[in-house]
Write a structure and sequence with these properties.
Layout (H helix, E strand, L loop, with lengths): L14 H8 L1 H25 L7 H24 L11 H8 L5 H29 L3 H26 L4 H21 L8
Helix pairs in contact: 2-3, 3-6, 5-6, 5-7
Length: 194
């Protein structure tokens, strides 16, 4: 993980990858769901903040990339004859989102920073998958994905810097990273991204 502002404060429990590899089909289904939800979140932000014209093109580009990741993940599912399932609540994401403040600017800042934190954790975990899976096509896929997710994590912060002071962003980001470390430590291990 690069030593930049998106650094997580904790590492994934090594048992997580054991759980994932024991039921990789379930992981793939969950992964596809996460990519689709990431796309939906970005599209909803574009609709909620139409006045933030400076960042909308980048949000559209990120949404397109998440949709592409969903399609690629679905292709791996299809090869395994796996079907999409109805979404189930994601305790990790829901706990992070519950911490988002009210107020137009505060909520916007928090949604962008939470997205950055989620992308950072996704990057870390996709890297772990790439390092531990044996299927060469999946290794290539997850190597590409973890680099893309890390890039996304940085972009959310860079976009915030176009409108807000570094100090405001850094302080709130630090608080959310501390919360994320507590949340991740308390989650049950399952064959899922979070």
């Amino acid at each position: 993980m690069s030593k930049k502002s998106t650094d997580l404060l904790s590492s994934t429990d090594p048992e997580w990858i054991t759980t994932v590899l024991a039921n990789f089909d379930a992981f793939l289904i969950d992964h596809a769901s996460c990519e689709r939800k990431a796309n939906a979140m970005l599209m909803s932000m574009i609709v909620k903040y139409p006045d933030r014209q400076a960042i909308i093109p980048q949000l559209i580009e990120l949404a397109q990339e998440e949709l592409e990741h969903f399609a690629e993940t679905y292709a791996f599912m299809d090869k395994r004859n796996l079907l999409l399932t109805k979404d189930t609540p994601d305790p990790y994401v829901n706990q992070l989102l519950a911490a988002a403040r009210h107020g137009r600017n505060e909520r916007f800042i928090d949604r962008m920073l939470i997205a950055s934190v989620i992308e950072s954790r996704g990057a870390e975990r996709f890297r772990i998958v790439a390092e531990n899976i044996t299927d060469s096509a999946l290794v290539t896929f997850y190597e590409k994905l973890w680099k893309s997710e890390l890039k996304h994590a940085h972009i959310f912060i860079l976009l915030l810097k176009t409108e807000y002071e570094q100090e405001i962003i850094s302080q709130r980001h630090k608080e959310l990273l501390q919360l994320e470390a507590k949340i991740i430590a308390g989650l049950e291990l399952r064959p899922a991204l979070h």
